[in-house]
Write a structure and sequence with these properties.
heterodimer, A: four-stranded antiparallel β-sheet, about 0% helix, about 45% strand, globular, B: mainly beta, four-stranded antiparallel β-sheet, 12 strands
């Protein structure tokens, strides 16, 4: 596709349920990034992938959060046992390569997650 | 850990006036610095970035920013504001492995 796509665009779930958020990067982009944007706050970096590998998972907020990427393309961010504080917009971005953090990232429209 | 501070969550300027959005970072090593813009109902897009080349960086739509190591600043400027510049602006820093964003500055342009 022309840009980064994310699905669903909106997700409402009940506290305690698991959710999966999907990101399709720009075709050919080898690096993929996940961020969280809570109301009134800046973007919080969660994790990045080089290919299918995530070198550093320390940005994930808790062990309820996990992310994977398969085939060097689609990535899913999974939140288990959702809590109300997980409510936020989850943004995905991709870049052509990863060269130590200086690459231009192209952002998707985000998934707005609401936990009731 | 790095941190990014954007002074002023809301900035208003008159059309044609200078735009100055402030960004300071904390870093013990030379970082990579970015400004992103988010127009209403659109995704984030890169305005400009500093990656250790020229300290004055020119971006899209007439924006530029200057990396000042002694002040740990990367302020964004534009000589003359247009109505179309109204948006949310985010400063970001990378230490090579993680990415840190400021809380954003909402720019309003008054006709």
């Amino acid at each position: 596709g022309a840009g980064v796509s994310q699905s669903p665009s909106n997700k409402v779930t009940e506290k305690g349920k698991d959710v999966e958020l999907r990101c399709d990067p720009i075709s050919g982009h080898t690096a993929l990034y996940w961020y969280r944007q809570s109301l009134g706050q800046g973007l919080e970096f969660l994790i990045y992938f080089q290919g299918n590998s995530a070198p550093d998972k320390s940005g994930l907020p808790s062990d309820r959060f996990s992310a994977e990427r398969t085939g060097g393309s689609v990535s899913t961010l999974t939140i288990q046992r959702t809590q109300q504080e997980d409510s936020a917009v989850y943004l995905c971005a991709s870049s052509l390569v990863f060269t130590g953090g200086r690459d231009t990232q192209y952002f998707g429209p985000g998934t707005r997650l609401t936990v009731l | 850990a790095q941190s990014v501070t954007q002074l002023g969550s809301h900035v208003s300027v008159s059309e044609g006036a200078l735009v100055l959005l402030r960004c300071n970072y904390s870093s013990s090593v030379p970082p990579y610095l970015f400004w992103y813009v988010q127009y209403p109902n659109q995704g984030l897009q890169l305005l400009l970035k500093y990656t250790s080349a020229a300290t004055l960086v020119k971006g899209i739509n007439g924006f530029e920013a200057e990396f000042k190591k002694s002040e740990t600043s990367f302020h964004l400027t534009k000589p003359s504001a247009h109505m179309s510049d109204a948006a949310e602006y985010f400063c970001a820093v990378s230490d090579g492995n993680q990415f840190y964003f400021g809380t954003g500055t909402s720019l309003t342009v008054i006709p």
